[in-house]
């Protein structure tokens, strides 16, 4: 995976997926673009991301 911070934004890219995470004082916004093969798993991927973020940000 390749990633780079650009200010408060983490931009990332890997085979089959790319996106960004925008971080501010009171929110985290994730944009994830899935390729064709990973798009089949989009529901599972979304629920896993939400579960991990909820757990880590509410700790």
Describe this structure in words.
InterPro entries: PHA_gran_rgn. This is Polyhydroxyalkanoic acid system family protein. Pfam families: PHA_gran_rgn. The chain has helices at 36-39, 42-57; strands at residues 2-6, 9-14, 17-23, 28-34. By secondary structure, it is an alpha+beta fold. A four-stranded antiparallel beta sheet has the order 1-2-3-4. A hairpin with a 2-residue loop joins strand 2 and strand 3 (17-23). The protein starts with a strand and ends with a helix. The mean pLDDT is 96.
Key attributes of the depicted protein:
59 residues; alpha+beta; flat
List the helices and strands and how they pair.
Layout: E1 2-6, E2 9-14, E3 17-23, E4 28-34, H1 36-39, H2 42-57
Antiparallel strand pairs: 1-2, 2-3, 3-4
